[in-house]
Amino acid sequence: MSERQLLWIGGYGADDSGAADIRRVRLDPATGDLADGGAAARTANPSFLARHPHGGLLYAVNELPDGGAVTGFTVGPGDTLTETGTVPTGGGAPCHLLVHSAGRRLVVANYQDGAVSVHPLTGTGAPAPRERLLAGSGSGPDPERQEGPHAHSVTAAPGGRHLLVADLGADELRRYPADPDTGAINGPGGTAACLPPGTGPRHVAVHPSGHLHIAGELDARVHVLRWDPASATARHVTAVAATETTGTRCHPSEVVLSPDGRRLYVANRGPDTVTVFAVEADGAVLRRLAEVPTGGAWPRHFALVAGHLIVANQRSGTLTVLRVDERTGIPRPTGHRLDSPRPACVLPAAG
Questions:
Q1: How far is Cα 207 from Cα 86, in angstroms, rounded to an integer?
Q2: Host H or E run for residue 251
Q3: Backbone dihedral region of 155: left (phi > 0), alpha (psi from -120 to 50 degrees) or beta?
Q4: CA 295 → CA 11, 183, 240, 266, 273, distances in Å?
Q5: Contact between 162 and 174 (Cβ < 8 Å)
Q6: Average of per-residue pLDDT values in the chain
Q7: How confident is the model over 64-77, as a mean pLDDT?
Q8: Where residue 18 falls among pLDDT bands split at 50, 70, 90?
Q9: Residues forming beta bridges with residue 72, ordered by sequence position
């Protein structure tokens, strides 16, 4: 019998308080079966989670429109979580966070006002009060979703010397120079790339070649950009449709590369599918291979774990498992599923 792998599940609370559990789920890598390990900690709307690169520490955004915060936890025996502290981000609705690879800072994207907060980590790994609050600006053509800046994710740029912020409201990829040894912002920010109007950039996958693959939440396309480290800018190369489904508006969410960089997976809310692309021409070309139902409603996030895609279907309140074919890279339903209240993030505990 194979050893089960631990997954942390973040999500949303059922009422205005936002109180929700970070849950433990264990995956059998041989079969794809999921086992519910119960609640590990309770905190306000932990809609996105991140691990510390040195292990033993977990972080969650607290996605509240007013009083947004970030909370740290230590991982103890029996996969218990003990809170180390909560600090305000200074922005509204924090929805994504990055633990810098040096392990000394957290960077949080605040959706509501587009601000990005930078938090040092204490000697015990607890989040400290923010040292920087980086404001966004701009808007886009969608009057409901792009009336102002909306920072949706933070990603390390190729080479690790800049942080990239996908701003859904401004159709922009912002950049900030960061010390590779500390994660501290060490200079003024700027625009790395302007996406086509109405793109709504959400999440970014970084190819080993330096190409960026960006999910457009509003235009339902995947955009390919080429990063230039000398100028710290990215040139738009091409874009492909995230789905071939018609009759239902599509809002792509998570985008993930396979470990070898040969496949790209995109979750599509609305059609409730995952599309897989072959990645060719050293990351510059995406060729559609297949589109597969997730088996749930509104796939907000997923993780690639031990040859499986574990999908958080927010509106159906389910986690579903797709097995990835080793030869083709195409995921197929396994029939394994687990009820989970309003799941929004799947984070492997290791790897």
A1: 33
A2: strand 251-257
A3: beta
A4: 18, 39, 24, 15, 8
A5: no
A6: 97
A7: 94
A8: confident
A9: 59, 85
Residue type, 41: A
Q: Which tokens go with 236?
A: 């738009």
Would you place residue 262 in the very low, low, confident or very high pLDDT band (cuts 50, 70, 90)?
A: very high
DSSP string over 311-342: EEETTTTEEEEEEEPTTT--EEEEEEEEE-SS
Q: How far apart are CA 48 and CA 39, in angstroms?
A: 16
CB 180 within 8 A of CB 163: no
Dmax over CA atoms of the chain, in Å, equals 54
What values do phi and psi take at 283, rounded to 5?
95, -10
Which of 48, 151, 152, 35 shows the shortest CA–CA distance to 99?
48
256-259 — which CB contacts under 8 Å span 24+ positions? 256/205, 256/302, 256/303, 256/304, 257/205, 257/206, 257/207, 257/213, 258/304, 258/324, 258/329, 259/304
Return the amino acid letter for 43: T
Q: Which tokens go with 196?
A: 């086509």
Name the 3-class secondary structure at 178.
Answer: strand
For strand 211-216 and strand 201-206, is the pairing parallel, antiparallel, or unpaired? antiparallel
Q: Own/partner pairs for 263-268, CB < 8 Å, 24+ apart? A: 263/289, 263/329, 264/205, 264/213, 264/222, 265/302, 265/304, 265/309, 265/331, 266/215, 266/222, 266/242, 267/294, 267/299, 267/300, 267/301, 267/302, 267/311, 268/220, 268/242, 268/243, 268/299
**Residue 206, amino acid:** V
Three-class SS of residue 77? Answer: helix
Burial 4-27 (b: 16+ CB within 10 A, else e): bbbbbbbbbbeeeebebbbbbbbb
